[in-house]
Amino acid sequence: MSQPFSLELSEDQLQIQKWVHDFSEQTIRPAAHEWDEREEFPWPIVEEAAKIGLYSFEFISQAYMDEGGLMMPITCEELAWGDAGIGLAILGSTLGLAGIAANGTAEQLFEWGPQCFGTPEKIQLAAFCVSEPDAGSDVSSLRTRAVYDEAKDEWVLNGTKTWITNGGIADVHVVVASVEPELGSRGQASFIVPPGTPGISQGQKFEKMGIRASHTAEVVLDDCRVPGSCLLGGKEKLDEKLARAREGKRSTSQAAMATFESSRPAVGAQALGIARAAYEYALDYAKERRAFGRAIIENQSIAFKLADMKTRIDASRLLVWRAAWMGRNGKRFESGEGSMSKLFAGETAVAVTEEAIQIMGGYGYIREHPVERWHRDSKIFTIFEGTSEIQRLIISRAISGIHIK
Fold first, then answer.
1. How far apart are CA 369 and CA 62, in angstroms?
2. Mind listing the pLDDT tens digit for each residue in 312-333?
3. Which of 48, 78, 261, 385 is catalytic?
4. Which residues does 356 contact at the CB level (< 8 Å), separation at least 6?
5. 150 contacts 209 by C-beta, under 8 angstroms
6. 67 or 76, which is more confident?
7. Which residue range forms the structural domain that includes residue 33?
8. What is the CATH number of the domain that holds 268?
9. Is residue 385 flagged as an active site residue?
């Protein structure tokens, strides 16, 4: 039985919201500028998150299992409100976990889920590897191959993944590869590459415009052998899926898309956190900044900007919460609701941070104030895990029933 949709947070949800917000305010925000400048993975901050249980398999499982579906987006919003780069460093392993949960068996989830995070004494990371140099939004064009060695019951992986969060530094890599390329996305499967597996290495580490505290790099697979048990979902399930695809029957799920469907509201929530941070900062500035004898918020040109910013933020939250509730309660996304939430929240983050800079004028453009960082951070939310154009494609196909190209 599904949980009724409600905009009133439960006592548990409110406590989690305050807990994460306090961590963001006291630990993340004071360190945000430093790690943005260093462009390094913020190990000390993640260690602090692990000590309090925020970075852990147990907490993320609790958040995903929340009956109302809102605990995960609440957590994502508050972490990104602190800093999007550090927030993504804390949340990055959840994408690998989502890949396991979406495509694996219960046994695989409980075996590998805890290894995505490790312990406070020995932190581990996970990465979800889909995009490739020639296959970003077009996941049907993946060239990374997985070939089964029946004699050894092993899969041999070869290829290069790119734009991978935690790529190369992760302990557990979840890799989407093509088993039968002629079947396109229907011929793909997901594999776990365990810690210490020979044949997997980090390629180029990318220097980015924003979310600089989040590690992004290539992952190179060179005759990387993984046990047959590391095929998510198992060989029997894969064989059945491939047989249906060869017969031209519709597939119920695809390895990469199953993960993105579950993660889109959480990504939208991160964009929402950035937008809220910028709006609050600009609002406080507009109340304090005086020009021509009065606070600048008394001018309609400023006040109306803030009104529009607040309206877009609240509309984004409603879309994110609806999609998160639908996903948790097994409701079908008939109109692309998951994509709507990610699309609108991502573009809202870009628009709101830009307006915050405009309200602050020259002060908004310098690094003494965080709004320029928030603006740089916001742009990725219209690009990764499906660009805004891809989200519109998904929505338009859903509402029309036509395969729009």
1. 35
2. 999 999 999 999 999 999 888 8
3. 385
4. 278, 279, 281, 282, 309, 364, 371, 374, 375
5. no
6. 76
7. 11-116
8. 1.20.140.10
9. yes
